[in-house]
Design goal:
This protein has 181 residues and is an alpha+beta fold. Helices cover 26% and strands 31% of the residues. It has six helices and ten strands, in the order αββαβββαβββαβααβ. It has an eight-stranded antiparallel sheet. It is globular.
Length: 181
């Protein structure tokens, strides 16, 4: 194979052929922030899973996991850094924001979600406590400013979502992959 052919082949692999979504499994986020963290590829899919107190979203490009997010109820008083220590991909040498609500590194970030009025089910559950969010890449590092922007936007979107006000355990049910092009 000639050098020109190799160059053309690698150039083709670097194109993004899918449409950037404006939500992560239903949580509104800016396409600009996702563009900064999603790699090139042909096909994007999203899928959710849930278990008591946690809902996860997985974003795959060409069947490879490239991004995961979660909203996760933890025991009241859990610190942001304690939570971060348990999230794969978040480097504990990362950055803590001045307000201590967000912690991020090149492959992941966590946030504390302020729920002004948690649902009655959250208050009566054994998972009563604090809601945290996380965003992590599938292993590729991105700029810290891009991760910071994404974790802040994702966490703020959860503040006014069903995660705070509704029934996180019952909705949404695990779904088939969401396809976009």
């Amino acid at each position: 194979m000639t050098t020109a052919a190799l160059g053309a082949c690698s150039q083709t692999q670097q194109q993004r052929e899918y449409r950037i979504p404006d939500t992560l499994c239903g949580v509104k986020v800016s396409a600009d922030h996702l563009t900064a963290v999603l790699p090139p590829g042909k096909k994007i899919t999203q899928r959710t899973t849930s278990a008591p107190g946690i809902r996860r979203c997985y974003v795959d490009i060409d069947d490879n996991n490239v991004l995961a997010t979660a909203m996760d109820w933890r025991a009241e008083g859990t610190s942001l850094l304690e939570y971060a220590a348990g999230v794969y991909g978040v480097d504990l040498d990362g950055q803590l924001t001045a307000d201590k609500r967000y912690f991020f590194s090149p492959m992941g970030g966590v946030g504390f979600v302020h729920c002004p009025t948690p649902s009655p089910r959250h208050r009566e559950s054994d998972k009563i406590g604090d809601l945290f969010s996380f965003v992590r890449t599938g292993g590729q590092a991105v700029g810290e400013s891009e991760m910071r922007a994404l974790i802040i936007e994702y966490t703020e979107a959860l503040t006014d979502s069903e995660a705070c006000k509704g029934d996180l355990w019952a909705t949404p049910k695990p779904s088939a992959p969401e396809k976009s092009r």
